[in-house]
Write a structure and sequence with these properties.
Rossmann fold, 7 strands, seven-stranded mixed beta sheet, alpha/beta
Length: 215
């Protein structure tokens, strides 16, 4: 297991709040958001899928429910969040592989996955760590595999720009609001990088970026 990353941030910034994460997410519109992410992953039968920065496992479980023939791996460094994810997986009686690890040092060989998704994780990383994680994620998909990165994007409208200004004060969203995340994906090696969806949220515009590993 790698040493704790210096930038490690618990789900709600403080470990004592982690048990309340799922309760908070209900009021943040999690069900709608998770459904949109699952649709954007473009799952096919029998695929190997990783949810990077899985938190308490809600997204990974939803993906697995949508494709019972898929193998779903959920990765996070937060041991408390993974404990909650394990209990949810056990209650659901659905097979999801939970792995502890970091985005900058994935504990997987090259070319293991058909799809990789990451939701609202990269805004916790500084510029150097974002680039490092992008390069590490790039080696994990198979040829023609896809990476769906969902995070704060370029704010749309006056109110979203106002919210983005607040978020920049408390999170590392400079590259996000400047539209640099897809540029970083391309620098890491992904091709056909595109914005596939943008949605407003109480915390700013959330963008869905998709990139492909060359065949």
């Amino acid at each position: 297991m790698p040493d704790a990353p210096r930038e490690f941030v618990p789900a709600l910034h403080f470990r004592f709040l982690t048990p309340f994460y799922d309760f908070f997410m209900v009021f943040a519109g999690e069900r709608y958001f998770r459904r949109l992410v699952t649709e954007a992953v473009a799952i096919r039968d029998g695929q190997d899928i990783m949810d990077l920065g899985c938190g308490t496992g809600s997204q990974a479980l939803l993906i697995r429910r949508q494709c019972l023939s898929c193998i779903v791996t959920a990765l996070d460094y937060d041991i408390d969040a993974l404990g909650l994810a394990l209990r949810k997986v056990q209650r659901a009686g659905i097979d999801v592989r939970l792995v502890r690890g970091t985005a900058s040092d994935l504990p997987f060989a090259d070319g293991c996955f058909d799809r990789i998704t990451s939701s609202l994780v990269f805004h916790h990383l500084n510029t150097t760590s974002k680039l490092s994680a992008m390069r590490e994620v790039f080696r994990a998909p198979r040829p023609s595999g896809e990476f769906l990165l969902v995070d704060f994007g370029v704010p749309k409208g006056l109110f979203m720009r106002f919210i983005a200004g607040i978020m920049r004060a408390v999170e590392r969203t400079d590259e996000n609001v400047k539209g640099q995340l897809p540029v970083m994906m391309a620098r890491a090696g992904f091709i056909d990088v595109a914005v596939v969806r943008e949605i407003p949220s109480p915390f700013g515009t959330v963008a869905f970026y998709r990139g492909k590993k060359p065949a």
